[in-house]
Automatic annotation (TrEMBL):
<dbReference type="InterPro" id="IPR053167">
    <property type="entry name" value="Spore_coat_component"/>
</dbReference>
<dbReference type="Pfam" id="PF05229">
    <property type="entry name" value="SCPU"/>
</dbReference>
<feature type="domain" description="Spore coat protein U/FanG">
    <location>
        <begin position="28"/>
        <end position="168"/>
    </location>
</feature>
<keyword id="KW-0732">Signal</keyword>
<feature type="signal peptide">
    <location>
        <begin position="1"/>
        <end position="24"/>
    </location>
</feature>
<dbReference type="InterPro" id="IPR007893">
    <property type="entry name" value="Spore_coat_U/FanG"/>
</dbReference>
<protein>
    <recommendedName>
        <fullName>Spore coat protein U/FanG domain-containing protein</fullName>
    </recommendedName>
</protein>
């Protein structure tokens, strides 16, 4: 029986030794975190304003100036240009746009849109020539549109005249 106890104790010690010397295994692997950021630009109506020439009497002298605002948001670092079309009146050009009152062909008020406060740089739709360039910063950016109606061009029948301009942002 003594031999049996000794064998049993020895077997228990050997089994405990194997359990204590078992190696833990590890493995590693790699993965990536990825995102694709694309450039984007949008116009916003919040904070934007029309070029509103308000009212002018036909007989009063002096040009009529007005300023409007486009609100552009582009991703940070995105270069862009803004072009303005000739408007919705037939025969208008980007140098001589026309507001009309809808009463008939030929009844219109010519006006010009500019890129600068001095109203010397026409705003059209030819990239690198008469568009406005900028770089996005990720926030809404205000871009002013300056307009002028020459005094001589207001000798038209009384009424409300309007035009719709399409602004296009290229980025």
């Amino acid at each position: 029986m003594k031999l049996f106890k000794s064998t049993l104790i020895a077997t228990a010690l050997v089994a405990a030794g194997f359990a204590g010397t078992a190696n833990a295994a590890t493995a590693t692997g790699n993965f990536q975190a990825k995102i694709v950021i694309t450039e984007s630009c949008t116009f916003s109506t919040a904070g934007a304003s029309d070029v509103d020439f308000l009212s002018k009497a036909r007989s009063s002298a002096g040009d009529v100036d007005a300023t409007g605002t486009l609100v552009v948001t582009c991703t940070s670092g995105t270069p862009y240009t803004i072009a303005l079309n000739a408007g919705s009146y037939g025969g208008a050009t980007v140098t001589t746009r026309r507001m009309h009152n809808g009463t008939g062909v030929g009844v219109s008020v010519p006006y010009t849109l500019y890129r600068n406060t001095g109203r010397t740089q026409n705003w059209g739709n030819t990239a690198g020539t008469d568009t406005v360039a900028g770089t996005g910063n990720g926030n809404a950016q205000n871009v002013s549109v300056y307009g002028r109606v020459l005094s001589a061009d207001t000798n038209v029948p009384a009424g409300t005249y309007a035009d719709t301009i399409t602004a296009t942002i290229n980025y």
